[in-house]
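For the sake of transparency, this paper describes our internal protein records without simplification. An entry from our holdings is shown next, in its original layout:
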Amino acid sequence: MVKIALVCLEVGQRFDALGSQHGLMSISTVLKSNGFRDVRLFHFVRKVDFHQWRQKLLEYEPAVIGFYLPSCQVDLVKKLIAEIPYRGAFTVCGGPHPTCFPESLEEIPGLDAVCVGEGEYAMLNLVRTLEKGRDPTQIEGLWVRRAASPSHGKIVRNPPRPFIENLDELPYADRSLFDTQHSIDAYGLSQIRVLASRGCPYRCTYCYNYKLGEAQPGRYVRFRSTDHLMGELKMLKSSFRFSEVFFDDDVFMMDKKRLAEFAERYPQEIGLPFVCSVRVEVCDRPTVGLLKKAGARRIDIGVESGNEGLRRKVLRRPMSDRRILETALAAREVGLQVKTLNMVGLPGETLETHMDTVRLNRQIRPTIVGLSVFTPFPGTDLYDICVKEGYLPAQKKIPYNVSYHKCILQMPKFTARQIHRCYNLFGIRVFWKQSKIKALGYTILYSDIGKFLLNRFSRWKSLARSILKGF
């Protein structure tokens, strides 16, 4: 039986590791349901003990090692592959970075293949092929390095597989891959994370999604049936202790007919509050009414920049300030909490245009705010703009320990020091007139000591939630 190691890297997360990764859990359940049950997770959270990595690999000796790879972990994956203590393991990377930038296969010595697009069936076919001792270079969805030396060899660029058309054909995600109950408890918010759909129809320049949508033939935006979704939620409710569902969909329930059905069934069959993300272009008053009826506690709105020109021209997000304000008002009127998602340090941004983000948030009067420092990812349009404008350092790479609160760009009109100060002061600037307690709470939250406490002790998240209502 083929032994398979799946590797999840959550080093440098802003508010600690989630202990959950939908793609790996889905790959694991597809492998196991097809007879490959010897699947083990290697999960790195705050740092990597390379001695322990080598020892565990020698004890287990997996034939296949699959890494989930976001761009910010590339350097770490290089080091992990270099430290594999025996020859013969087939190494493959999947996830957003290799899908959008498959040329990364050429830049990671010792890596045998990258998966372009969804990995369930590409991984299954790879394991089946290796089990039979056959040549793995002709598998749809994989770019494979034809063996010549550990770091060189001709790369076979196979065509991508079509998107999985019917999500209901996939078994429920393998929650046993992670210690799910520990993850729920350790993160400190008593939430379980679930996907009701895959894909996003929008083309924001900073996001992987539009590149992911072009990576495979077929329909990118797909929905699970309400029956399939409810079945998984019931299973989760009977298996784990949690008080809230966090829907990880890029845009939750864009299909109004599905939302109406969900709003009828979820309160009766599940009955727990939930949090979801929406786009203001498709979130009108009837929509927020249905979300409230279904049991939503909070909606998350991507503002990103409060400067309408920068939002349209640089981020490719054409929503108006008026539309954002209307959605937030409608949500509050039906009793929903509102979280805004914002960035600072965008290409071409200045201190003044960042203050537009502060001013728009003051008008929105959100329950809570989220702020991250912009990081460019290879394969996205905004990464290319950063390279073209000379905003990236000379080496033009993303360090593996990016944690979305440190600026790596060099912009003459908005310095890294100014950006870090704006990051630290965002909460107090937005909330000072609305709530002194929230303003001071965010001052602590965005400080180094606040991040340390949140990353080490789950009770600090519970405390933050009690102070920053809606967290």
